[in-house]
Amino acid sequence: MTIKPLIILPDPILRQVSKPIERVDAELLRLADDMLETMYDAPGIGLAAIQIGVPRRLLVVDIAREGEEKQPQVFINPEIVKSSDEIAVYEEGCLSIPEYYAEVERPATVSVKHLGRDGKEYVVEADGLLATCLQHEIDHLNGVLFIDHISRLKREMVIKKFTKAAKSKAV
Predict the structure, then answer these.
(1) CB under 8 Å, gap of 24 or more: what pairs does 145-148 form?
(2) Alpha-carbon gap, residue 13 to 57, rounded angstroms
(3) What is the pLDDT of residues 104-155, one digit of tens each?
(4) Structurally, how many domains does the chain consist of?
(5) Fewest CB atoms within 10 A around its CB: which of 13, 37, 67, 156?
(6) Distance in Å from the first CA to the final CA of the chain
(7) Catalytic pick among 27, 125, 137, 156
(8) Is the peptide bond prior to 43 cis by the omega test (within 30 degrees of 0)?
(9) Predicted TM-score of the model (pTM)
């Protein structure tokens, strides 16, 4: 397994819409394992393939708390098929927007259809942190960042900060 470099805001790659995966093969499973390794190293609880520069509809999550046994999950071509009217608010962060956190409102529960590592179709009923994490990562696959769910003023300040930081690194 290989730890991959993370794509950081304001890189335009993060705004790409990821393409569906046509088959589950050894190469794809290797990518999923690399993503899990990268996510654990960061450390984070979710990672979309686009965050390592691969515009494919693949994400990994593990919401196990520190000290608990790892519970890695792989979602291939995930799609939200149902979401609740009830809203939950979580403070979100993102490996592609390091050290910035904001409260985001999202549906409290979601049903996510996806393919598993075995290529079979599954539906996960998620609530709490898992529901938030899945919505956050599926947003990535659609070119949407969690800062798109906060006020325009806050979002513009964050983008400006990361653009400035990227320019100073490029010099």
Answers:
(1) 145/9, 145/14, 145/94, 145/96, 145/97, 146/92, 146/93, 146/94, 146/97, 146/102, 146/104, 147/94, 147/97, 147/100, 147/102
(2) 14
(3) 999 999 999 999 999 999 999 999 999 999 999 999 999 999 999 999 999 9
(4) 1
(5) 67
(6) 32
(7) 137
(8) yes
(9) 0.96
What is the distance, to the nearest Å, from the Cα of residue 113 to the centroid of all Cα atoms in its chain?
A: 16
Residue 114 is assigned to a ligand binding site: no
**Is 137 among the catalytic positions?**
yes
The answer to whether the annotation marks 136 as part of a ligand binding site is yes
| CATH for 110 | 3.90.45.10
What pLDDT score does 169 carry?
Answer: 81
| Helix, strand, or coil (residue 123) | strand
Structural domain boundaries, residue 44: 12-170
What is the number of other CB atoms lying within 10 angstroms of the CB of residue 85? 7
Q: Is 133 annotated as a binding residue?
A: no
Nearest Cα to Cα of residue 21 among 81, 78, 80, 82: 78
